[in-house]
Amino acid sequence: MSSRYSYGPNPHSTGHVISTVRTLMRTGGLDVSLTAIARACGTTRAFLYSNWKTASALHLRALRAELAQAFETAQRTCPSDGTVPGITAHLTEVVRTVRRHPTTAAVARSSPEVFSAAYTAAKGPLMQDAAERIADLLHPLHPHGGVWGDSELGSRPWKILWIARPAALCPDAVGDRCREDTLDNAFAELLRDLLAPWRESGRLRDGGTSGRL
């Protein structure tokens, strides 16, 4: 008698679909089609269309998931302690993670015009996600209100994103130690300059850390 329970992935679950798209995009970039996704998921193109309409919508969901994973990876390997040096080191690790991610290189190969436009894109869901995650990291610099309680600090997430993109969206530098170090050091130096007014803020102001930062 066979079990009525299935232990394999549900081809119709959102998690399975997005996970599959993420895997495909690591080699196919933005060239991954609804047909290819349906085949890899074990479902139909009609099902994907009825839920997401376009391959681009699935690409965006996958890229947002990859961005979240980049921040989570950086949190494990180089967690922020809420100080300017800690935030700088953490965001530099995020930049390095994005640069080295196979999807970054695959998108650059498959859609050079779209990839190039990402350097100057002023808005969009992916940019908004990145800015919000940066804002969360900056919150300890103004414990009583975060970026919403300090208008000058509130302008920093988008400025940080602006300087991060050239360092992150450079997959051709991966494997070249000198180039990668140059990109990371330049980003870190610019980030320290942007956050200089809060160097003695954050956890010190909140009483969480003693001594010099």
Protein described:
The N and C termini lie far apart (66 Å). The protein has 213 residues and is mainly α. It contains eleven helices and no strands. It has helices at 14-28, 34-41, 45-52, 55-77, 84-100, 102-110, 112-117, 125-138, 151-154, 156-168, 177-194. Helix 4 (55-77) packs parallel to helix 8 (125-138). 31% of the residues are buried. The longest helix has 23 residues, at 55-77. The model is unreliable at 1-7 and 203-213 (pLDDT under 50).
Question: Can you lay out the helices and strands and say which pair or pack?
Answer:
Blueprint: H1 14-28, H2 34-41, H3 45-52, H4 55-77, H5 84-100, H6 102-110, H7 112-117, H8 125-138, H9 151-154, H10 156-168, H11 177-194
Helix pairs in contact: 1-2, 1-4, 1-6, 2-3, 4-5, 4-8, 5-10, 5-11, 8-10, 10-11
Helix content: 55-70%
Number of helices: 11
Number of strands: 0
Percent strand equals under 5%
| Rg, alpha carbons | 20 Å
Through-space gap between termini: 66 Å
Q: Give a quick account of the main beta sheet: strands, pairing sense, barrel closure.
A: none
Order of helices and strands: HHHHHHHHHHH
Mean pLDDT: 88
Task: List the uncertain runs.
Answer: 1-7, 203-213
- Secondary structure class reads mainly alpha
Shape: globular
